[in-house]
Give the backbone structure.
Amino acid sequence: MMRKDELIEALRDRDNARHKNAVLWCLAIIGAIAAIAAIAYAVYRYLTPDYLEDFDDDFDDDFDDFFDDDDEETADDAEAAEEEKADDAEAAEETSEEAAEETAEA
Protein backbone atom coordinates (compact mmCIF):
# COMPACT_ATOMS: atom_id res chain seq x y z
CA MET A 1 0.00 0.00 0.00
CA MET A 2 2.79 2.37 0.87
CA ARG A 3 4.44 1.74 -2.45
CA LYS A 4 1.22 2.49 -4.31
CA ASP A 5 0.76 5.85 -2.50
CA GLU A 6 4.34 6.83 -3.28
CA LEU A 7 3.84 5.99 -6.93
CA ILE A 8 0.61 8.03 -7.14
CA GLU A 9 2.29 10.98 -5.40
CA ALA A 10 5.28 10.77 -7.76
CA LEU A 11 2.95 10.86 -10.78
CA ARG A 12 1.11 13.91 -9.37
CA ASP A 13 4.40 15.71 -8.80
CA ARG A 14 5.46 14.92 -12.35
CA ASP A 15 2.14 16.26 -13.71
CA ASN A 16 2.51 19.40 -11.59
CA ALA A 17 6.06 19.88 -12.86
CA ARG A 18 4.88 19.53 -16.46
CA HIS A 19 2.05 21.98 -15.81
CA LYS A 20 4.45 24.51 -14.25
CA ASN A 21 6.85 24.00 -17.14
CA ALA A 22 4.08 24.62 -19.71
CA VAL A 23 2.96 27.80 -17.94
CA LEU A 24 6.55 28.99 -17.80
CA TRP A 25 6.96 28.39 -21.54
CA CYS A 26 3.73 30.26 -22.33
CA LEU A 27 4.84 33.24 -20.25
CA ALA A 28 8.29 33.19 -21.90
CA ILE A 29 6.75 33.21 -25.38
CA ILE A 30 4.38 36.06 -24.50
CA GLY A 31 7.29 38.03 -23.01
CA ALA A 32 9.43 37.49 -26.11
CA ILE A 33 6.62 38.64 -28.40
CA ALA A 34 6.08 41.75 -26.23
CA ALA A 35 9.80 42.54 -26.30
CA ILE A 36 9.96 42.20 -30.11
CA ALA A 37 6.88 44.42 -30.47
CA ALA A 38 8.41 47.06 -28.18
CA ILE A 39 11.66 47.06 -30.16
CA ALA A 40 9.77 47.31 -33.47
CA TYR A 41 7.73 50.24 -32.15
CA ALA A 42 10.86 52.04 -30.89
CA VAL A 43 12.55 51.62 -34.30
CA TYR A 44 9.39 52.83 -36.05
CA ARG A 45 9.19 55.96 -33.84
CA TYR A 46 12.89 56.67 -34.38
CA LEU A 47 12.75 56.36 -38.17
CA THR A 48 9.41 58.07 -38.79
CA PRO A 49 9.77 61.82 -39.47
CA ASP A 50 7.80 64.19 -37.27
CA TYR A 51 5.40 65.87 -39.68
CA LEU A 52 3.56 67.66 -36.90
CA GLU A 53 6.68 69.66 -36.01
CA ASP A 54 6.95 70.91 -39.59
CA PHE A 55 3.27 71.83 -39.58
CA ASP A 56 3.62 73.71 -36.30
CA ASP A 57 6.60 75.64 -37.65
CA ASP A 58 4.68 76.64 -40.77
CA PHE A 59 1.65 77.61 -38.72
CA ASP A 60 3.77 79.66 -36.33
CA ASP A 61 5.40 81.47 -39.25
CA ASP A 62 2.02 82.30 -40.78
CA PHE A 63 0.66 83.30 -37.40
CA ASP A 64 3.64 85.59 -36.72
CA ASP A 65 3.38 87.12 -40.19
CA PHE A 66 -0.28 87.86 -39.60
CA PHE A 67 0.45 89.80 -36.45
CA ASP A 68 3.54 91.47 -37.93
CA ASP A 69 1.39 92.80 -40.77
CA ASP A 70 -1.15 93.98 -38.24
CA ASP A 71 1.52 95.85 -36.29
CA GLU A 72 2.87 97.49 -39.42
CA GLU A 73 -0.62 98.53 -40.51
CA THR A 74 -1.35 99.88 -37.06
CA ALA A 75 1.89 101.89 -37.09
CA ASP A 76 1.11 103.18 -40.58
CA ASP A 77 -2.45 104.02 -39.52
CA ALA A 78 -1.15 105.85 -36.46
CA GLU A 79 1.27 107.89 -38.57
CA ALA A 80 -1.49 108.71 -41.07
CA ALA A 81 -3.82 109.76 -38.24
CA GLU A 82 -1.14 112.05 -36.80
CA GLU A 83 -0.56 113.62 -40.21
CA GLU A 84 -4.31 114.16 -40.64
CA LYS A 85 -4.50 115.82 -37.22
CA ALA A 86 -1.59 118.06 -38.11
CA ASP A 87 -3.20 118.94 -41.46
CA ASP A 88 -6.54 119.63 -39.75
CA ALA A 89 -4.82 121.84 -37.19
CA GLU A 90 -3.03 123.79 -39.94
CA ALA A 91 -6.27 124.13 -41.90
CA ALA A 92 -8.06 125.39 -38.79
CA GLU A 93 -5.29 127.95 -38.16
CA GLU A 94 -5.45 129.15 -41.75
CA THR A 95 -9.24 129.43 -41.56
CA SER A 96 -9.05 131.39 -38.33
CA GLU A 97 -6.35 133.67 -39.78
CA GLU A 98 -8.45 134.29 -42.92
CA ALA A 99 -11.49 135.01 -40.77
CA ALA A 100 -9.45 137.43 -38.66
CA GLU A 101 -8.14 139.20 -41.80
CA GLU A 102 -11.64 139.51 -43.25
CA THR A 103 -12.91 140.88 -39.95
CA ALA A 104 -10.01 143.36 -39.85
CA GLU A 105 -10.70 144.48 -43.43
CA ALA A 106 -14.36 144.93 -42.86
User: Anything to note?
Assistant: The longest helix spans residues 51-105. The mean pLDDT is 76. Residues 12 and 63 are 75 Å apart (CA to CA).
